[in-house]
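lol forgot to send this yesterday, sorry. struct tokens for the thing we talked abt
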């Protein structure tokens, strides 16, 4: 672990060699897409129905049949699972992202957060490990989109409730911003988003929802602290499935870097789970 910590320090120094997430995504798709093209993957039918239910409950009354799969299960033991091609699953997630935007424009925030929660829940499914890297990218893109929508709304509300006096600049230095100027109404609305994510019973979606919303902390008169990242890293330890835990830790690292490139204590969690996944792979 000490050697790994030293490596982290070296990485922070050599920041010019840092690879952006957008560039990394392209490499991941290039590496794994050829392995999944034309192949069928296993999905959990029950989670599929849950995600579809979110769409149907929305005020927009959308009846999109985005997640209606053709079942390939032939025995009673496989009725809880279905088969779908990787490309079909990818197309359906892209349509789901568009539905998220539609519901947001219709002011149906409840349907939007339900979509975000169900996307996070889909990351619990590791039945097709070879497809998991692609699924992780597609689903976290939707979560990032959700977080961006909420952040944009908070910016507009801040300007509205301050009479146009406060304009949040994405490129501003937070150290020079007076967070006490954020209107009380905006703080209340922002806090409500975090309370909704805190009420999620399952650990995985709770972590992902908080991470995709974490940039909104500034609207509650506070900056994201090192303690917030450490707390989330400890929550990652509660994820039983090693593959899920590793990718959740990776998402934590990506979000954490965007907030504070100098912070690194919480990144030790990545070392912990790298050993965990290696041990599991050796046993199997």
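and heres what i got for the seq, position by position
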């Amino acid at each position: 672990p000490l050697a790994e910590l030293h490596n982290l320090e070296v990485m922070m120094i050599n920041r010019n060699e840092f690879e952006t997430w957008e560039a990394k995504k392209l490499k991941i798709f290039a590496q794994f897409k050829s392995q999944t093209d034309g192949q069928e993957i296993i999905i959990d039918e029950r989670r599929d129905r849950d995600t579809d239910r979110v769409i149907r409950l929305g005020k927009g009354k959308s009846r999109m049949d985005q997640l209606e799969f053709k079942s390939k299960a032939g025995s009673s033991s496989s009725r809880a699972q279905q088969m779908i091609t990787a490309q079909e699953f990818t197309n359906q997630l892209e349509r789901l992202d568009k539905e998220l935007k539609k519901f947001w424009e219709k002011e149906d925030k409840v349907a939007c957060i339900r979509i975000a929660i169900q996307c996070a829940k889909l990351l619990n499914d590791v039945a097709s490990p070879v497809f998991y890297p692609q699924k992780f990218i597609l689903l976290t893109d939707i979560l990032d989109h959700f977080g961006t929508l909420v952040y944009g709304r908070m910016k507009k509300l801040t300007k509205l409730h301050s009479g146009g006096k406060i304009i949040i600049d994405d490129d501003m230095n937070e150290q020079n911003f007076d967070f006490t100027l954020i209107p009380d109404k905006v703080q209340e609305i922002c806090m409500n988003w975090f309370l909704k994510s805190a009420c999620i019973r399952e650990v995985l979606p709770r972590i992902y929802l908080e991470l995709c919303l974490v940039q909104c902390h500034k609207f509650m008169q506070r900056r994201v602290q090192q303690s917030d990242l450490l707390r989330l890293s400890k929550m990652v330890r509660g994820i039983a499935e090693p593959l899920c835990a590793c990718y959740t830790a990776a998402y934590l690292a990506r979000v954490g870097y965007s907030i504070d490139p100098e912070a690194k204590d919480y990144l030790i969690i990545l070392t912990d789970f790298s050993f965990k996944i290696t041990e599991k792979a050796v046993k199997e």
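The chain has one domain: 2-283. anyway ping me if u want another try
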